[in-house]
Amino acid sequence: MDVLYLLIPLSIVLVFVIGVAFWWSVRSGQFDDLEGPAFRILQDDD
Amino acid sequence: MPAQAEAVIQTSECFHCGETLPAGISLYARVDHATHPVCCQGCKVVAELIDGGGLTGYYKSRTALPAKGDATADVTGDSEDSFYDLPSVQQELVREVGDGHVEATLLLEGVTCSACLWLNERHLQSLDGVSHAEVNYTTRQALVRWDARRLRFSEVLAAVRAIGYRAVPATVENVEVLRRRERRASLWRMAVAGLGMMQVMMYAVPAYVAQEAALSADQSQLMRWASFILTVPVMAFACTPFYRGAWRDLRNRSLGMDVPVALGLLLAFVASTYATLSGRGEVYFDSVSMFAFLLLLGRHLELVAREKAGRGIERLAQSMPLKARKLSRFPLDESETLLPASALLPGDIVVVRAGEVFPADGVILRGETQADESLLTGESLPVRRGPGAPVIAGAVNRHSPVLMKVERVGEHSRLAHIGRLIARAAAQRPHLGRLADRVAAGFVWAVLLIALLTAVGWSLVDPDRALWAVVAVLVVSCPCALSLATPTVLVTATTALARRGFVVTRADAIESLANTTHFAFDKTGTLTQGRIRLARVEAFAAEDADGVVRWAAALERQSEHPIAQAFIGASAPADNDVIVTQRRNVPGQGVEGYIDGRRYRLGNARFTGADGSRPRPADANTCVWLADNDKVLARFDLADTIRPGAASTVNALRAMGNTILLFSGDAPAVVAETARALHIARFEGGLDPEGKLEALRTLQSTGARVAMVGDGVNDAPVLAQAHLSIAMGAGAALAQTQADAVLTATDLSALVEAVKIAQRARAIMKQNLAWAMVYNLSAIPLAVGGWLTPWMAGIGMALSSLLVLLNAMRLLRPSTAAGTPEPAPLLSHA
Q1: Span A1-46, pLDDT tens digits
Q2: DSSP symbol at B176
């Protein structure tokens, strides 16, 4: 079980990395319009 | 091309707008190599333009019908919008982006479904000179970037109008920027709490399930520290709205939900931190972060719904800068200067052309016209205005250009006065919504008192357990379920209603709608479309059948009379070639003229020599006849179009136990006719705004809960007095900003659906409140007694909240197979 001493700090780092990734995606406007892309992908057939 | 592709599609509805095809009119549009019937010239132009642009995907994927095309729409962008090409006007609307390119944000109007937005986006992209066009489906705003050297702003606006929509340049962007910041912050807070919650639970589970001594002391201490590290951002960042709310409540000396929430969170966090540092006692970081996440989720849902409801209203209230043509050197010469109406001063001389809006109150100096004041006075027919006659800002000049002298502008104008009248009436409304908050405040007091008693009691019996019992009380009684009970239902109900074209602008509108007993309609623009149309053409001789509409339209071509528009709208553009000579207008009778040497008369029975005593169809308000030299050729039935679904809506509302009334400012005879057509027994015509208000008060004094459905600005005081006010989406912007709800669907039957949803929402709200009460009443004694540990309390709290949330979500399921339910998940509007 000694691996816990490595895995738990690692998981904390991972959470922060995911947090930053999410922060970036919110900031870049990826969540501003959740309806449009779903519709466009069905329409852009040319 | 295969022969069947050439076939004319047989249907009774217009291919573009879905309205019933007028009898005796044959207009067709070619779309996708097939010929489809359309109802008017406007729809034909729009449909063929969409086809020409290769955008027929719109017709396949739309889920709601658009507005009727307007044949008279100015699509060249030369005259109407040239105002927007003025540098002084563009200053606040257009931004330079370098390289000769500029960009502007446009609000799109007339949008009914996602396909409309796609159509607008693609159409804008296809314009020569546009480098970028993007439509945000959530805010319904278009961001357009174009080469200012190749394209004028007015041409961009005209392009949108050409496909049947309206684009208004967004003047104030600040609201949307603020809102976007708020939405992103809320999403980000929720994510922090959610990530923290998931990870902290991972660390907490081993402590709950591990056998004695399976985890070494070091390892469990490591888990505690990890939990602590991940809970700090949740507490320090994600939970700030709760601290702020609690602090505001304490400062205002009023207790809200935020106080016990903040108290419970801080107490549990501080105690867990102490346990981590000292290595003694239990830690409850998992409860803290889960608690925070669930509360933030509830708030986020509420924010999204509130925004969605508010957006539709604001865009309508945001009026575009009104233009005025000032004659600065009158009477020396009559050169016009275009300027915003807000820059006018009393005493200025302006010219108002036909079709334009009077920019200020004033008197007419020269010219004679008809002014359409229907939005302001409720009078549906234009009124005659000659030299010396007063005109009101906001009225539409229907007939011919006039010169007017400005008397009152801006806040002194009558439009502004009506606005103030509304604000006053709105301020007098009873505030029902405060009740829930008062109940909650009492509940919070009780919880704090119980927590205090628990602390005192346990410190006498067993001081070690006191802290955890108090935390358990605060967490388990957290009015989570109670505070989620109504907002979640309101959110889901608002979403479900908005999907059916019923936009709620005040939270208590849903509850009001559920217990309404009377529905009072305003005739103009509510039950009818306020537009005269050719309902039926009856040619008396078969060989004339094709010609009669053409001849009638040719005779009426130069007339501004509302009846003339019905004929012109029904004829093909090729009929413009029909030449009429010696046209003569006989006021009150009709018009006569020569076509190909034959004399035609179009007008009333006496004028044309028709037998007017013959029975008429019930739905026709007016009949006119066409005659040549020796015989009557045809009869045209004209009717004000009753809105689609008006009759079935009235019947359905009555079947649900409501009383239907009709209050109208129109002539009593016309009102009686409409009431008869829709089987409405109680109606009153010829009412001015004060009269409507009086009738409404009388009704309310008998205990009736009246929902008023209106559209004009003049109705706004009445809307404010009503128990519930519903404005029609097409009506005046001013009325909509004051109404409790706006019906944006063109089909009135959305109202029936809305009442059903509101009633279901009320039932679910009651269930939720009952459950939350039962849960709290049974769980608090357990916590006080010390039988509940904080983690059990946390799970109980979460489960009861979840139950409340899931119960509320039931509203999103379509209740019946009717309509076109969009499969949109709850969170899709973030």
Answers
A1: 688 889 989 999 999 999 999 999 988 888 887 777 777 777 665 5
A2: H
Nearest to B772 by CA among B486, B442, B472: B486
Distance of residue B191 Cα from the nearest chain A Cα, in angstroms:
8
Separation CA B304–CA B830 (nearest Å): 6
- Evaluate whether B144 touches B170 at the Cβ level (below 8 Å): no
| Contact (Cβ atoms closer than 8 angstroms) between residue B829 and residue A34 | yes
pLDDT in tens, B49-82: 888 777 887 887 777 777 766 655 555 444 556 6
Inter-chain residue contact A4 with B188, CB threshold 8 Å: no
Using N-to-C axis directions, what is the helix angle for B285-317 and B258-278, rounded to 10°? 150
In eight-state DSSP terms, residue B523 is I
**Which ranges of B113-257 does DSSP label H, i.e. alpha helix?**
114-125, 153-162, 174-209, 217-233, 240-251
Question: Is residue A17 within 8 angstroms of chain B, CB to CB?
Answer: no
For residue B228 the two structure tokens come to 């602590």
DSSP H helices, B353-504, are 374-377, 414-427, 434-461, 463-476, 480-499
Burial of A18 (0-12, 13-18, 19+ CB in 10 A): middle
| Owner of token pair 């052309």 | B353
Which pTM value belongs to this model? Answer: 0.56
Cβ count near B554 (within 10 Å): 24
pLDDT of amino acid A45: 55
Six-digit token string for A42: 């069905």
**A39 neighbourhood in chain B, CB within 8 Å:** 61, 114-115, 117-118, 137
Query: Please, which residues bridge with residue B398 across strands?
Result: none
Q: Which of the residues of B are catalytic?
A: 522
- Average pLDDT (B440-448) is 76
Q: Do B61 and A36 touch (CB under 8 A)?
A: no
Q: Where are the alpha helices (DSSP H) in B210-284?
A: 217-233, 240-251, 258-278
State yes or no: pLDDT of B315 exceeds 50.
no
Predicted local confidence at residue B498, as pLDDT: 72
